[in-house]
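User: Some background: our group keeps a shared notebook of sequences we're curious about, and every so often someone picks one and asks for a predicted structure to add to the entry. Today it's my turn. The entry only has the sequence so far, pasted here. Could you supply the structure so I can complete it?
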Amino acid sequence: MQALKIEKMALYHLDDVMEIEEKCYGEHHWTRDSFVNEIDNAISEYFCAVNSENKCAGYLGLWKIIDEGHITNFAVNPGFQGQGIGHFLIVNAIEKCYTEKIKYITLEVRVSNERAKKLYEKFGFKSLGVRKKYYQDNNEDAVIMWTENIFNDSFKKLFDKNKEYLKEILK
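Assistant: Of course. Here's the predicted structure to add to the notebook entry:
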């Protein structure tokens, strides 16, 4: 895997972010203004995985509401998928949650997105319901996924295992 670093999303990342949005979500993607608003949102943090060429290869957004973290938007440029970038971004988000004393993390994912669901399950997310017709482009349902309390020993053990795996793929 190439050298990566995590940067807090800034306006200069948005050209890359919008390119990823279009590639991953087609015409039904977030707008540049949506990302500008989220960068300035007091309850959110957005991160980019930046490669050695200073190109954003993927990003993840996290809302922090009391003791809950909600992953709002998460994508990896298709040209960089399968290299552990998604794993890297989730590890970063969970570490942020530990720092901020956030206990639970939630997200929605398309019912049909098996690859993403497997990644989330690897980190201990469990399906706890469905939002009917959640996605506007095709009325697809969303699976609601949650973690257990991330401060529980069982979650910490799984997270440590995922961090070790990340170290191996970052070599």
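Suggested note for the entry: The first helix runs from residue 14 to 25. DSSP finds five helices and seven strands in the chain.
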